[in-house]
């Protein structure tokens, strides 16, 4: 397979639009910043991703059940959860460019540059020493690398301390001390750093002022916490058990670039796992590994995934790790796994005055359970899937000459369309009628597409570009003996099979079981 070209990200964005995966929201009005719409193939791919998550979490675990809580919640929810007081990002403006940044991200980018310098030193040395190169020894002893690393660690530690203490003045001082410049203009003329709350608010009915203030939820998790006892009692679950939910979340992100990576409206797939106090760390380890296995089962190569412990814990967590994915712009968070202690349930219990406790029959006592959370972005998973599957490669055409094709090598279970049914010629009724019959029988089982326009080669290319794993071609031999040609997207192999076998051949590859079986 060809290597992703340097301009891979630009191509991915262009491909997403051209082939109906993602459109800018309200494009005819010049778009709405950091808000996107999923087109016809995008919605299918996203639904398939969500189905794979739901099946892996709910269907595969007898002690995990689902929920679909409303987006609007009582405003006290967000007071109890700490979001009203603490769901802030540190904002800084550059006075010359009038550009707005997150102060913590500017500092993190500075640390990333030190890491890049270390990487370059290692690369140079590997070339110089060849086979005798001992990378670990070099990293631990080379004075320049040791200096870069110590500097990076010291800055990361200070950043975490200042963020935990909400010390905005110290963040500003650090930016000045490191002589960080505006990435766009190179200016160092910064405003003070100030806290910016990320929640969107709106009004309930005609109730004016604080009384009627509602928030669009910034995470789906709180809908699970406030329903903890409703779900536990109605499903008679015993601890440990989990509640899973997929839904929209909203954040007024300060800097929202990088396409669908950071949006103001996005979708989360979250699961809260309720455990006995004191057992949370063992479940935290369990879910870390289980979630990594899910990403691998979805077809993501191991080298594109890594764990990254949090230096700076969210207000609710006592341990947290990200599963990072190597996006076209570097390794970034795709999923968070958090040990949330009893913070949320205890806060809701206190503010609502309603008990949120579980009676543990084995211990013969009641307690507020501890919670381990897994939270993955549907959109970031989507971006990862597109990014790793969009490939340009050279393949032989019908005459055996080299030709270039753009193909989405998605896991077949995720592909928006599973089978394309193509009559070899569109002006021959016997071919189009037979093709329609095949389409009409397959559509009960799979998302199919019928296409009779253009030469067959072009139709194959269109299906490759949306990641369709199988093309079924109906030709004159079909009329004679009820067989068709099935072309496989990845191998380009063409096989003649009876019409009665198409479903079996396709199902083998596109069944979600091929993903779920990789979880154990
Ligand atoms: N309930 C925990 C929670 O919300 P988080 O780390 O803030 O934790 C979880 O978010 C996941 O939601 C992230 O790993 C990411 O995949 C996704 N996410 C967060 N903010 C996002 C944004 N602005 N745009 C797209 N996805 C986002």
Give a topology summary.
Elements: H1 8-18, E1 22-24, E2 36-38, H2 40-59, E3 64-67, H3 76-80, H4 83-86, E4 88-93, E5 100-102, H5 103-129, H6 135-141, H7 143-164, H8 168-177, E6 194-197, E7 201-203, E8 213-215, H9 221-226, H10 228-235, E9 241-250, E10 265-275, H11 280-297, E11 305-309, E12 319-327, E13 330-341, H12 343-352, E14 358-360, E15 365-367, E16 370-377, H13 378-389, E17 390-396, E18 402-408, E19 419-423, H14 429-442, E20 448-450, H15 456-466, E21 470-474, H16 476-481, E22 483-488, E23 494-498, H17 502-510, H18 513-516
Parallel strand pairs: 3-9, 19-20, 19-21
Antiparallel strand pairs: 1-2, 4-5, 4-6, 7-8, 9-10, 10-16, 11-12, 12-13, 13-16, 14-15, 17-18, 21-22, 22-23
Helix pairs in contact: 2-13, 5-7, 5-8, 7-8
The structure holds glycyl-adenosine-5'-phosphate.
Glycyl-adenosine-5'-phosphate binds at residues 219, 221, 251, 253, 262-263, 266, 268, 270, 333-336, 373, 375-377, 379-380.
């Amino acid at each position: 397979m060809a290597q992703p070209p340097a301009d891979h990200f630009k191509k991915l964005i262009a491909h997403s639009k051209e082939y109906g995966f993602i459109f800018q929201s309200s494009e005819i009005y010049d778009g709405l910043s950091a808000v996107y719409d999923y087109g016809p193939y995008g919605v299918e791919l996203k639904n398939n991703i969500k189905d794979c998550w739901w099946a892996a979490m709910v269907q595969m675990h007898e002690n995990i059940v689902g929920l679909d809580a409303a987006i609007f919640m009582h405003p006290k929810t967000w007071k109890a959860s700490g979001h009203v007081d603490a769901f802030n990002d540190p904002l800084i403006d550059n006075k010359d460019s009038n550009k707005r940044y997150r102060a913590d991200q500017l500092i993190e980018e500075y640390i990333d540059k030190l890491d890049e310098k270390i990487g370059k030193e290692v690369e140079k040395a590997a070339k110089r020493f060849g086979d005798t190169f001992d990378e670990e020894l070099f990293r631990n002893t080379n004075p320049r690398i040791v200096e870069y690393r110590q500097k990076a660690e010291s800055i990361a530690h200070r950043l975490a301390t200042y963020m935990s203490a909400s010390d905005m003045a110290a963040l500003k001082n650090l930016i000045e001390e490191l002589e960080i410049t505006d990435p766009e203009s190179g200016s160092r003329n910064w405003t003070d750093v100030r806290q910016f709350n990320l929640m969107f608010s709106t009004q309930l009915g005609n109730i004016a002022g604080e009384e009627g203030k509602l928030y669009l939820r910034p995470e789906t998790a709180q809908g699970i916490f406030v329903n903890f006892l409703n779900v536990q009692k109605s499903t008679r679950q015993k601890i440990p058990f989990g509640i899973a939910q997929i839904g929209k979340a909203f954040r007024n992100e300060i800097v929202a670039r990088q396409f669908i990576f950071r949006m103001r409206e996005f979708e989360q797939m979250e699961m809260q796992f309720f455990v006995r106090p004191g057992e949370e760390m063992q479940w935290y380890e369990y879910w870390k590994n289980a979630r990594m296995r899910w990403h691998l089962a979805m077809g993501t190569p191991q080298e594109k995934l890594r764990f990254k412990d949090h230096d700076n814990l969210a207000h609710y967590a006592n341990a947290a790790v990200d599963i990072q994915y190597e996006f076209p712009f570097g390794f970034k968070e795709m999923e968070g796994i958090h040990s949330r202690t009893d913070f949320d349930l205890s806060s809701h219990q206190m503010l609502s005055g309603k008990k949120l406790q579980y009676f543990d029959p084995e211990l013969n006592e009641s307690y507020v359970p501890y919670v381990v959370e897994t939270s993955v972005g549907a959109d970031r998973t989507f971006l990862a899937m597109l990014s790793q599957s969009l490939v340009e490669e050279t393949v032989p055409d019908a005459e055996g000459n080299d030709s270039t094709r753009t193909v989405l090598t998605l896991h077949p279970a995720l592909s928006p369309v599973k089978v394309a049914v193509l009559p070899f010629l569109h002006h021959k009724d016997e071919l189009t009628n037979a093709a329609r019959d095949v389409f009409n029988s397959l559509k009960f089982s799979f998302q199919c597409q019928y296409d009779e326009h253009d030469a067959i080669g072009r139709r194959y290319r269109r299906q490759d570009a949306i990641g369709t794993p199988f093309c079924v071609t109906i030709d004159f031999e079909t009329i004679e003996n009820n067989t068709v040609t099935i072309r496989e997207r990845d191998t380009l192999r063409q096989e003649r099979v009876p019409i009665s076998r198409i479903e079996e051949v396709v199902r083998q590859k596109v069944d979600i079981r091929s993903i779920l079986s990789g979880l154990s």
